């Protein structure tokens, strides 16, 4: 297996309010955790270096979210680490490819994700649909990971030139987490408004978006958006440039989620901080897995943008001491 080298940059801690690509983030109540801090959990990470890496689909796809049809058995990778998502089904193309130029040093393999028929099997919706590929972290790690362990996830994503994107405005790709949390929810009671405690799964993360026809005759442009605010809305992040990007999320004991990203392949540092949020008003309690969305207009002709990922990796500050540890990244 090829040896990989990860360059690290010097940490510079500059407080809890940052301006990133013209977007002012909120001040955070506690210290954010740089994704990639702590122990690299080898059994919940993949580098796609094995030439025999293969994903085996089992059509027709699952589409529980749309028509409550599971359609087992689900597609799986031969290494057991990846699986079709029951909610929406796997992308039509999940294939190991040669690492694009500028990738991690020593990387020979990466993973191409692309889809074509992303809705209910046998039907064409004529609108944007999505498929998901998820990592079997809960199965590999023996269950969900409590935020008291301070887990984090990091991935490299290859952003293609804009002329290779599906020519559709909106989200094209997502890097997401499946987490579990608690919040207070308002409801109508017998004697007026009341609140109750709700425990649910929710799915924060990043979306890669295209403005295919900007106003005033400007050229198409791409940007990151982050999910989500406390009210559940997506908010805008930095503009995207073609080439490799590094993204990460961390989940801290205070129940908040921290978002980091930068252009390039270097490991994340405090300089790459984008935001800290409690999406949908939840206090995060458990990290379950990471997954990737691939979206396209489902018209029977259009393929999604070709998305390539490399080195999706889980880290934790506590709980996995038997694994290989990476140097800590604690702001000074």
Number of helices: 2
Number of structural domains: 1
Which secondary-structure class do the elements indicate? mainly beta
Shape: globular
SSE topology string: EEEEHEEEEEHEEEEEEEEEEEE
Low-confidence runs: 1-29, 322-332
Helix content: under 10%
Amount of beta strand: 35-45%
Radius of gyration: 20 Å
CATH class: Mainly Beta
Q: How is the biggest beta sheet arranged?
A: 9 strands, antiparallel
Overview of the structural elements:
The chain is an all-beta fold. It has a single domain (34-265, 277-316), classed as Jelly Rolls, CATH 2.60.120. The chain is built from two helices and 21 strands. The protein has helices spanning 64-67, 137-141; strands at 19-20, 23-24, 39-40, 55-56, 76-77, 82-84, 93-98, 109-114, 128-135, 145-146, 151-159, 170-189, 192-202, 205-211, 221-227, 234-240, 243-251, 257-263, 273-277, 283-297, 307-316. Strands 6, 9, 10, 12, 13, 14, 15, 16 and 20 form a nine-stranded antiparallel beta sheet that branches. The longest helix has 5 residues, at 137-141.
